[in-house]
Specification:
The chain is an alpha/beta fold. The protein has helices at residues 3-17, 22-40, 62-67, 69-72, 79-88, 114-128, 130-133, 151-154, 170-180, 189-197, 219-226, 332-340, 369-385, and strands spanning 91-92, 95-99, 109-112, 137-143, 159-165, 184-187, 206-209, 230-236, 239-244, 250-252, 257-265, 268-275, 286-287, 290-294, 307-314, 319-321, 328-330, 350-355, 358-363, 391-396, 410-412. The strands form 5 sheets. A 9-stranded mixed beta sheet has the order 5-4-6-7-8-9-10-15-14, with helices on both faces.
């Protein structure tokens, strides 16, 4: 395997596809998907043979994948073997093993080959920073855990990559980060906001948020501090799913993933993903747990790839409440907007469903009492308008930076019903 050839080939393919019109792109994508279904998918024992159509395949999810992990990867590696490899050095022979951070305690595994690792590197460079690549890049990745995905970048002569462990806390590595002086920063929005509030000495040319939902309340703080547009990388165990273009639109990675969408109410959708460029761990019609709002307009950048207006959050964090007319669902974006629109002085909060009929609104003591009261009334009015009698309680308490878990300003802590 020639690592450089894999990365360069993927970079070139990604750039070439982005210049097609939508009709030509869809023909290319259909041919690539068909090759995947005929050649790669049958190598996983869960499937065994090529289907006539993608929609003939069953819908899968994380629970099924983890229960039958060996049936979804072509080498038959069991979940126990993958966890053991991850605990050692993240290697299972020639393969790299990684895992999601597990927002709700339910971590997902993945295995990829060396070739796939470098294809991923070429694709993300083509999407995120093609203009910076030839000038050399110092990339700081600030995430809860390191994975073998970044090894390819470390070995490149054009990229210097440094990983900073979010779980250790910024006080442990602030000096090292500032000394590294990154030209590109990839970090959760809460950490980018922390850099702004604490006035870190950083002057990157590009900033990307990743690993958490970007709430509108964070964007102006981050952009004002760095004097840059905040961009996004939407990536999960399922692979690279979307990257912001230079016009600021978040484009789905349809050049490597085929998306189907299930309506989730309120104009939102949940994606089913088929990663047609993955050959080691097969993901076909895999149901994700995210809520997206799709854009209805093509991007001015000319890319044929569809855009996402907003990644709303996790489906598990939809509030499920009782009403006289039956159960109702309230999505995270609706709840978040009710709090933020109540008063302009509100720039942080937590809204947590702790019981079927009980919700806590947590606001910092430094917020003015009238602003807190307005937010409480806004949430109560929203829920009353939906016909629910849930009790909303105001809690005044500090909202410290948490590095051990993902930030979820709207969170449902009820046990999920299958």
């Amino acid at each position: 395997m020639n690592a450089l050839a894999e990365a360069v080939g993927s970079f070139a393919l990604t750039r070439w596809v982005s210049r097609k019109n939508r009709a030509d792109f869809e023909r290319w994508q259909a041919a690539a998907l068909r090759r995947f279904l005929d050649r790669d998918l049958p190598r996983a024992s869960f499937y065994g043979k090529a289907p006539p159509r993608l929609t003939d395949l069953p819908v899968t999810d994380k629970a099924l994948l983890m229960a039958r992990f060996e049936d979804f990867n072509v080498h038959g590696i069991t979940a126990a073997e993958a966890w053991a490899a991850l605990a050692r050095d993240g290697r299972a022979g020639s393969l790299t093993v990684g895992a999601s951070t597990g927002t709700s305690g339910n971590r997902g595994l993945f295995v990829i080959s060396e070739a796939e690792k470098y294809r991923w590197l070429g694709a993300i460079l083509a999407k995120a920073a093609p203009d910076l690549l030839w000038r050399g890049m110092r990339v700081a990745v600030i995430l809860p855990q390191n994975t073998g995905l970044y090894e390819g970048a470390r070995r490149s002569r054009l990229i210097k990559l440094a990983f900073f462990d979010l779980t250790l806390g910024p006080e442990r590595w602030r000096e090292a980060l500032e000394t590294f002086n990154p030209t590109v920063i990839i970090a959760p929005p809460k950490m980018l906001r922390h850099f702004a509030v604490e006035c870190f000495r950083l002057a990157p040319k590009r900033i990307f948020c990743a690993a958490e939902t970007l709430d509108p309340v964070d964007r102006p703080v981050i952009e004002a501090f760095f004097r840059l547009r905040l961009e996004q990388i939407y990536m999960a165990t399922e692979g690279l799913l979307a990257v912001t273009c230079r016009q600021g639109s978040l484009h789905l990675a349809e050049d490597s993933v085929f998306f189907e969408f299930e309506p989730a109410g309120e104009g939102l959708v949940t994606p089913l993903v088929t990663a047609f460029r993955r050959q080691t761990q097969i993901m076909a019609r895999y149901r994700m747990n995210d809520l997206l709002r799709l854009s209805e307009q093509p991007c001015r950048c000319g890319s044929p790839l569809r855009c996402v207006d907003e990644i709303i959050g996790r489906k598990d964090d939809v509030f499920r409440l009782a009403s006289a007319s039956g159960p109702i669902l309230v999505t995270p974006d609706v709840l978040r907007n009710a709090v933020l629109k109540a008063d302009r002085r509100i720039d942080d909060f937590r809204l947590v469903q702790i019981a079927p009929d009980a919700i806590e609104l947590r606001l910092p003591p430094s917020l003015a009492d009238d602003a807190a009261a307005a937010a409480l009334q806004a949430v109560r009015s929203l829920l009353e308008g939906r016909g629910t009698t849930a009790i909303v309680t105001l809690v005044r308490a500090p909202l410290p930076l948490e590095t051990s878990r993902k930030l979820r300003r709207v969170e449902c802590r009820l046990e999920q019903v299958p």
